[in-house]
Amino acid sequence: MRGHVFQRGKTWSYIIDIPYEPLTGKRRQKKKGGFRLEGEAEAACAAEITRINSGLFIEDSNMTVTTYLNMYLEIHAKPNFKPTSYDTEKTVIEARIIPEIGSTKLQKLTPLIIKKFYAKLRLKYSSDYVRNIHGILRRALRLAYTDYDLLLTNIMDKVKTPKVEKKEMKFWTFEEWNKFIESSEGHVHFIVFSLGVYTGMRRGEILGLRWKDIDLVKGTLTINQTLNWIRTGVIIQPSAKTDNSNRPVVLDRYLIDDLKARKKQVDNLKLKYGKEYENHDLVCCYEYGGRIIPKRITEAFNVLTRKAQLDKIRFHDLRHTYASFLLSIDINPKVAAERMGMSPQMFNHRYSHLLPNMQQDAVNRIEDRIEEARKKRAEPVDK
């Protein structure tokens, strides 16, 4: 880093060349004048260079939170996130963060401003949603400090992660589960619900499932892609949600029968529409082969739930229903986790609240076996 002094009228000034602005690539300089003597200007210049090199200097900037967050989306989020994650981040920033604190200058942003922002959010939104917004701000502002030299400190270090209110997990009993699948037979999207009920697959995994991913002879399917919705439309992602999500799933005979019936239905529709059929090789699609908009499944699920007079749950809660069913019939949690595309650690964390009753059942079985053994020992031995 270089600096020099020069005389302007009767006083002396210094100018320092600062490294280029990391976001825009623009040249930056630090200037200061009004020194009576050349030596005073040289000493001040040297001291300022030392301060800059030690990381105790941030150039004054009029950049607002809005300008910075838009840059963050373009240079960090867009090239590094999956399209669905980027779309979610962009939506939250544009709809929730910018309208409230976007006009604030980035360097004037304080922990107090952010805490007041969170307090306002909590009046309208769930604690989960506020926590998600916090995660986005924390990530963006950390980069402003660590990578872009736009902040002197990471102000998010002084903002605690909002607490999340623990919600009771909703799921159906086996009887309700069975009632739903029976009442949905004949629906245009029945195969979607059948896959959800019998495998616990995520909605995006079901809608992205292709016939080439299924072996009806061996009775298996493999999850290799997902179908999701972003603001620009339906998007296919070649990889599933996590490393564990890309998995083989063994099918039960009831689901195999449903898939065989669906295959015949699709083959007939291909003949009906001919060249106009959109062949994406999808198991779950519109009559003409087009990709299903995910929210249409949610809407249909809600209608069928009301029709069956069942307690309202989300489509995603079919996963919780499936997990509770597996545990209730003594399926090893490790096997259950594999079927659902989760790590054993994540599965245990998510569904540990279902285990106490099963542990009690295990204790009861142990007691029964001990009691049985004691009775045998107490029986008289024939001589």
Q: Explain this structure to me?
A:
Helix 7 runs antiparallel to helix 9, helix 7 crosses helix 11 and helix 12 packs across helix 13. Strand 6 and strand 7 form a beta hairpin. It is elongated and about 115 Å long. The protein has 383 residues and is mainly alpha-helical. It has three domains: 52 residues; 94 residues, Orthogonal Bundle (DNA polymerase, domain 1), CATH 1.10.150; 181 residues, Intergrase catalytic core (hpI Integrase, Chain A). It has 14 helices and eight strands. Helix content is 51%, strand content 11%. This is Site-specific integrase. Keywords: DNA integration, DNA recombination, DNA-binding. Pfam families: Arm-DNA-bind_4, Phage_int_SAM_3, Phage_integrase.
Quick take:
The protein is mainly alpha-helical. The chain contains 14 helices and 8 strands. The chain has 3 domains: 3-54; 65-158, DNA polymerase, domain 1; 174-354, hpI Integrase, Chain A.
* CATH topology-level name of the largest domain: hpI Integrase, Chain A
Element string (H = helix, E = strand): EEEHHHHHHHHEEEEEHHHHHH
Structural class by helix and strand composition = mainly alpha
Strand order of the largest sheet: 1-2-3
Indicate the CATH class of the largest domain: Mainly Alpha
Number of strands: 8
Q: Largest sheet, described in full?
A: 3 strands, antiparallel
- Number of folding domains? 3
Principal-axis shape? elongated
Radius of gyration: 31 Å
User: What's the name of the CATH homologous superfamily of the largest domain?
Assistant: Intergrase catalytic core
Measured distance between first and last alpha carbons: 103 Å
Question: What is the average per-residue confidence, as pLDDT, rounded to a whole number?
Answer: 88
Instruction: Quickly give the CATH architecture of the largest domain.
Output: Orthogonal Bundle
Report the portion of residues in β strands.
5-15%
